[in-house]
Write a structure and sequence with these properties.
The complex is a heterodimer of chains A (about 200) and B (about 200). With about 200 residues, chain A is mainly α. Chain A contains ten helices and no strands. The longest helix of chain A is centred in the last third of the chain and has 28 residues, at about 165-190. The chains are: A mainly alpha (about 200), B alpha+beta (about 200).
């Protein structure tokens, strides 16, 4: 089997992989474990739901993709959509509600793949150097901002999670910001840039 | 103009995002569940359910029995050494501050345990003894059924989670219920004056 045919086969199986991952995330034991701590919900469950959307990027009908593409020059609109949807799910109140209220859980399981994962996957390849740069710097800044808030806030921000959990999540977010910052630095210093459209 | 279309779409998405954010935060006011339930109590007072409780003396009472009085409620468990001691201290202060209306039966302090399996009347009485007990006006009680406890927690917006050390972590606040049996205010811990301010001025005279 050639590498190309393996990749082709993987592509055709992407929707199936997305469905499998989504169902796995829905099973009560997995859901319970990933929602038992604030850290796991924000740094494992939400990213995995984004992955479901990422795997589904070819799933929308061709017509829909071509219409949205006309409004998504440089991937800007899609990255804006992913950012505002992510901002809502970063609120302590949303993390709380997603655990405590069934309607909020449904909203999370649908909106994180469809409003963050899919637009991100569709828009990222269209984004040029500057758009990617702005998005990444904003991502780093948000990790630091939210991380610092969780780390330094003296009280619990979520009714369903403990203070120690909140502070650990804050530490991880700051570390993620730092690691991403270092990665961007390396890319700028030694990386190759093949995309220069914007 | 693809660029213009992308900017228009982005602007529309930003506005929609701002609207969603505003809806998720009660108009950029409540970023946490705790502040949301305080705003909800203030702006949309809801009836509290009529639950049967057992007091520290073993007597059975109903929440509806307190209709006609201003009721100040906190939620505790007697093994708690942190929040509940602070709340107990605050109730002890309120007992002095509100001595007159408490004595006249126009106000009532009520500590409800969310750990009814452990907090028997004897434990509740011991909890009350931990704070100077100048007499009436402050009851400690436990719900008689777990269903009743669940309804109480939902109505008041109380979330209790294990703290990993054998105890619990929970919202610590004073809940003000008006004489019609509606939850009208939730005020923070360590500020007895805030609880007094939530009561009508006429009560102190």
């Amino acid at each position: 089997m050639t590498v190309e045919s393996m990749i082709g086969q993987w592509r055709s199986h992407r929707a199936a992989a997305a469905a499998l991952l989504f169902c796995a995330l829905l099973t009560p034991p997995v859901k319970h474990v990933l929602e038992a701590s604030m850290t796991a919900q924000m740094l494992l469950q939400m990213p995995l739901l984004v992955c479901v959307g990422w795997l589904l990027r070819r799933a929308p009908p061709e017509r829909f993709l071509s219409i949205t593409a006309a409004w998504n020059h440089g991937g800007i609109a899609g990255l804006v959509l992913a950012s505002v949807a992510a901002a809502v799910w970063m609120l302590p109140r949303s993390l709380d509600a997603a655990v405590a209220l069934p309607w909020a859980a449904v909203a999370k399981y649908l909106s994180v793949p469809l409003l963050i994962g899919v637009p991100l996957a569709v828009s990222w390849p269209r984004a040029g150097f500057i758009v990617r740069g702005v998005f990444l710097v904003e991502f780093v800044a948000t990790s630091y901002r939210v991380g610092w808030l969780y780390l330094s806030w003296p009280e619990r921000l979520c009714s369903n999670y403990l203070l120690g959990d909140q502070q650990r999540l804050g530490e991880y977010l700051v570390l993620i910001g730092a690691a991403l910052c270092a990665a961007i630095g390396c890319k700028l210093l030694w990386g190759r840039f093949d995309s220069g459209r914007v | 103009m693809p660029v213009l279309r992308a900017l228009l779409a982005s602007l529309a998405l930003l506005l929609a995002g701002a609207a969603a954010f505003s809806a998720a935060t009660d108009g950029f006011r409540a970023f946490t569940t705790e502040s949301a339930r305080r705003i909800a109590a203030r702006e949309h007072p809801a009836d509290i359910p009529d639950i049967t409780l057992q007091t520290q003396s073993g007597e059975r009472i109903h929440l509806a029995d307190f209709r006609g009085k201003w009721l100040l409620v906190d939620f505790i468990y007697t093994r708690c050494l942190t929040y509940c001691s602070a709340l107990g201290g605050e109730f002890a202060q309120l007992q002095e501050r509100l001595a007159a209306p408490l004595a006249q039966g126009r106000a009532q302090l009520l500590s409800i345990s969310f750990d009814p399996a452990h907090d028997t009347p004897a434990e509740l009485a011991a909890y009350r003894q931990r704070f100077r007990d100048p007499g009436s006006g402050w009851l400690a009680a436990r719900p008689v059924t777990t269903g009743g406890l669940g309804r109480l927690e939902r109505a008041f917006g109380i979330t209790v989670i294990p703290d990993g050390l054998g105890g619990y972590t929970h919202n610590a606040a004073v809940h003000v219920v008006d004489p019609r049996g509606r939850l009208v205010a939730i005020v923070g811990m360590n500020d007895p004056e805030a609880a007094v301010r939530a009561l009508p001025r006429s009560l102190e005279r």
